[in-house]
Design brief:
Layout lengths: L1 H8 L3 E4 L8 E2 L4 H22 L1 H10 L5 H30 L2 H15 L12 E3 L8 E2 L23 H26 L5 H6 L1 H14 L3 E6 L5 E7 L13 E5 L12 H5 L3 E5 L13 H18 L7 E6 L2 H11 L5 E5 L5 H8 L5 H11 L4 H5 L6 E6 L17 H13 L6 H11 L4 H10 L4 H14 L14 H15 E4 L18 H5 L1
Parallel strand pairs: 4-5, 7-8, 7-9, 9-10, 10-11, 11-12
Antiparallel strand pairs: 1-2, 1-3, 5-6, 6-8
């Protein structure tokens, strides 16, 4: 009876990875398990579909008279039949699993590891791909003396200074904002957290994990955040591989709003020869929770702690690589871990609000702004301004997502605003209002030859600009903010600004979702390196 219960309640097994004499293969359920599991999946899909379409379904039921006593009785009978079918399917699936030696061996191993976390057989779980909800926790957030003092970005609009009358008057709008963001709003910002999209890409995620584990020898782990979420991670270690000279350096990747580490930007640093640690946002893939700013911060925090205290990397050997909205988590980590080696953000914007407003009707601008400022206040540029290490911004010249125009236009790419805010923070005396206007004009040029033409028109000489920066650093320091420029003529400020722009930003002639070639994944420029 105990074996039957374990098989009934046990997780789905998807694949047995290659090891020793066993070839990697997808798990093959017998007929009993296969057909009953299909029934369970169908009922689960219908439940998810009904959840997202509940307003339409409730309207339909109301018009058909199902909200009457007789209608409710009919719905109750239908619900009872569905539950009976579901329980029967679980029971039959358990019987099928009991008669499958491969599943029995797996569930016995999982039970042993779950009951004894120190079991020597724990590593053997890496041989199986199964429902991540049943995966034992490998690492849990802990308060550590090595942790920095967190600079938590405010994610809520301040209510101070508002009278009771004003507060009561705004209560309906606040309630509407809460309902909007906690129903469809957060899913519009992060569509990857929806169960329907997770189900749609499930096969690709399995293939991606298989490649990472069987070809790249990746190690999957479950991390528990301080707010109780489970984060699905994958680590590819190349420190002991002589054929990977960059293997001593770790790159932690952060995916976009519909990206997963299995099929996301991990591939770029892997092809460049680095050790790589990828993770899925809360609510994505095997991770639990929802990707609100505080959850994103807690997720990247436990990933950082895991990299340092469990995997054994030092902060100055860790670089961050983020794509699109993954720049928020990366910027949060950069702000809180100043000793990181470097940060590279690809197709990333400065602030979520301007992008969201551009995609919505003008009449909703105030509502959208207020809602996002309260619940999704993702000021990536503000966070990165608190990071003073090496930084590279990759701008995609045909980016159709992070532009405020209806068609991809370089002048409307919010990567421009990200760069300008970074330079204003680091070199405040260079970027006067007049210089910033010239910089915007330079960044608005979509053709590389025309950019070079403007670069030449302002007589920018790289060697002269670098010499000026070095001379200032010799007298003062390379620490930010660098106050260079206060006594420089306007023309020299423009030259230095355009020079720094070419050092901080790299253009990639592509759309938003094209994988970044490894040739673009280069260490960010640093004046400290130039001084050596």
């Amino acid at each position: 009876m105990t074996s039957l219960v374990r098989c009934v309640l046990g997780p789905r097994l998807y694949r047995v990875h290659a090891h020793e004499t066993i070839r990697g293969h997808d798990y093959q359920p017998n007929a009993l398990e296969k057909h009953s599991d299909n029934i369970i999946k169908l009922i689960s899909f219908c439940w998810s579909f009904g959840y997202y379409t509940s307003p339409l379904i409730l309207t339909f039921l109301y018009r058909r008279g199902y909200f009457t006593q007789e209608g409710a009785l009919g719905l109750g009978k239908l619900g009872g039949m569905v539950l009976l079918t579901l329980f029967g399917a679980y029971y039959i699936r358990g019987l099928g699993r009991m008669n499958n030696p491969e599943y029995v061996a797996f569930i016995n191993l999982l039970d042993e590891v779950t009951q004894n976390s120190e079991s020597e057989k724990r590593k053997m779980l890496q041989l199986y791909d199964f429902d991540f909800s049943a995966w034992p926790v490998d690492y849990e957030w802990s308060t550590s003396s090595s942790q920095p003092l967190w600079k938590n970005q405010s994610t809520a609009v301040s209510q101070r200074g508002r009278g009771i009358t004003s507060w009561l008057g705004g209560l309906p709008c606040q309630l509407l904002s809460y309902l909007a963001i906690h129903t469809f709003g957060s899913r519009m910002v992060y569509p990857g957290r929806t169960s329907l999209l997770n189900a749609a890409v499930w096969a690709q995620l399995l293939l991606g994990r298989t490649k990472l584990i069987e070809k790249d020898h990746g190690i999957r782990a479950k991390l528990r955040t301080r707010d109780g979420n489970s984060i699905d991670t994958m680590f590819v270690d190349r420190r002991l591989r002589s054929d990977y000279p960059n293997g001593q350096k770790l790159v932690i990747t952060s995916e976009g709003n519909a990206g997963f580490y299995e099929i996301g930007c991990m591939e770029t640093p892997l092809k460049a020869g680095y050790s790589v640690l990828g993770w899925n946002h809360p609510g994505f893939g095997g991770s639990t929770g929802a990707p609100y700013p505080h959850s994103e911060g807690n997720a990247i925090a436990v990933v950082m702690q895991y990299a340092v205290e469990e995997l054994g990397f030092s902060y100055d050997d860790i670089s961050l690589f983020a794509w699109s909205i993954g720049g928020f988590a990366a910027s949060w980590a950069a702000m809180n871990y100043p000793d990181l080696s470097s940060v590279t953000v690809d197709a990333t914007f400065d602030d979520l609000v301007p992008l969201a407003i551009a995609k919505m009707p003008d009449s909703m601008a105030n509502f959208v702004s207020s809602t996002l400022r309260t619940y999704m206040n993702m000021k990536i540029a503000e966070n990165l301004c608190n990071y003073t290490g090496p930084l590279r911004i990759i701008r995609r010249t045909k980016d159709e997502i992070i532009t405020t125009s209806e068609i991809p236009e370089v002048p409307c790419n919010r990567g421009n605003d990200l760069l300008i805010k970074i330079l204003q923070s680091r070199y405040p005396n260079l970027l006067t209002e007049e210089v910033t206007q010239i910089l915007r004009q330079f960044l608005g040029i979509s053709d590389h030859l025309n950019m070079l033409s403007m670069y030449s028109a302002f007589e920018v000489e790289d060697s002269a600009c670098l010499r000026t920066l070095k001379e200032y650093a010799d007298k003062h320091s390379t620490k930010f903010p660098m106050l260079i420029g206060e006594d420089l003529p306007h023309a020299k400020k423009v030259q230095l600004t355009l020079f720094l722009t070419t050092k901080y930003m790299t253009d990639f002639d592509s759309t938003h979702c094209t994988p970044l070639p490894p040739s673009y994944f280069l260490p960010p420029w640093s004046l400290d390196d130039e001084m050596k």
